[in-house]
Amino acid sequence: MRPGFFVMEALRSIRNNVAIAVAAIVTVMIAVFILGTFIPSFLYVQSTVDRQKQRLDVNVYISDGATDQQVAGLQSGIKQLQTEGLVKSFTYISKNEALAILRKRMKDPTVLDLLPKNPLPASFKLTSTDPKRNAEIRERLIDNPAIDKTMGEPGEQGISWAKETTDRLLTIAKFIQYAGIALIGVLMVASVLLIGNTIRLSIFARRREVEVMRLVGATNWFIRWPFVIEGVICGVIGAAIAIALLWGAKVGVVDQFVQDNGGLTKGEAGPIGFVTLAALLIVSGGVVGAVGSGVTLRRFLKI
Q: ∠ CA(220), CA(226), CA(227), 5° rounding?
C-alpha cells in the first residue's frame, strides 16, 4: 500500500469538508493553546518549589567545649554521609562568621555590640540531597559529642532543619506535581474527545463510503488510515496556529513582564525553551488528532 494514496485521500476529505476541518483545527488550536500555557506555568511553579527545597539546610551546631578531635570526628561523619549520598555539600561556619551573618540580617546590628561575648556556636551547614531524609541525617549525627544540644529549634536541639517548614514545603511540592500531572491528563483526554467528536462529523458524512469499502473487502486499517492522517493534519495545523499565538503572547506580554521585573536572576533559566515547547505541542497536536480519529472510527468499522 502506498502512503501517498492515504495522504491524498486525507487531503481530499479535508477539501470536501472544509467546515468540518476548520472546526477540528480550531478545536485542537484551543486545546493546544491551553496546554502550551499550562506546561510552562506548571514547570515554573515546580522549579520555584525545587529551588526552595534546596534552601532547606541542615544546621549542625558545635559545642564551644568540643575538642579539635571531636570536631574532626563530626566532620568525618558528615563526609561519610556525603559519600553515601545523603549530603550534597557542607560548609564550616565559625563563631565569628555566624555573628557576621546575624549582623547582616538585623535591622539594627549595633545591638550586638552590647553583648559581653559572642553567644553563637560554630556549625556545619549541610545541604541534603533530599529534604525528606533530613531526619535520617540527624539520627546519624546526633550522638556525636561535639554537637551542642542546647542550640536549635524545639525538638531539633543540636541539629536543626526547620522540620515544620520542610514538611509543609514537601507537601506542597507533592501536591503541585500530582495536580499538574492530573490536569495535563484531563486536558489531553478532553482534547481527544473534542477532536474525536469533530472528526466524527467527517466520518458520518462519509459513512456510506466506509460501508461500501467494508462490503468490497477493505481491511479496517485501509479504511482507517486516511481518517487518521486527516486527524494528524488537522492536529498539526491547529497546533501550529496555537504556537503562533503563544509566540505572540510570549513576545508581547511575557518577555516584557520579565524585562520590567528585572529579568531572570543570574544562573536562572526559564522552565522550558520555546523551541522545545513548540516541538512538544506539535507532536501533541498530531497525536491528539490521530487518536481522536482512530478512536472515533472504531464504531463505524464494527460489522
A: 85
- The single-letter DSSP state of residue 302 is -
Strands across the sheet with 87-93, in order?
Answer: 87-93, 123-128, 58-61, 159-160
> Which domains does the chain carry?
3-52+168-301 (no CATH), 57-161 (3.30.70.3040)
User: Nearest to residue 39, comparing CAs of 270, 207, 302, 303?
Assistant: 270
Distance of CA 88 to CAs 9, 133, 193, Å? 59, 12, 46
275: number of Cβ within 10 Å: 8
Three-state SS for 161?
coil
Could you list the pLDDT tens digit for every one of the 303 residues in the chain? 577 777 887 788 778 778 878 888 888 888 888 888 888 888 877 777 777 776 778 899 999 888 889 999 999 999 999 999 999 999 999 998 988 888 888 877 777 777 788 888 899 999 888 888 888 898 899 888 888 888 877 767 888 887 777 788 888 888 888 888 888 788 778 777 777 777 677 677 777 777 777 778 777 777 778 878 888 888 899 889 999 998 888 887 777 766 665 555 444 445 678 888 889 889 888 888 887 777 766 666 654
Nearest CA among 57, 129, 67, 54 for reference residue 93: 57
Could you tell me the pTM of the whole model? 0.64
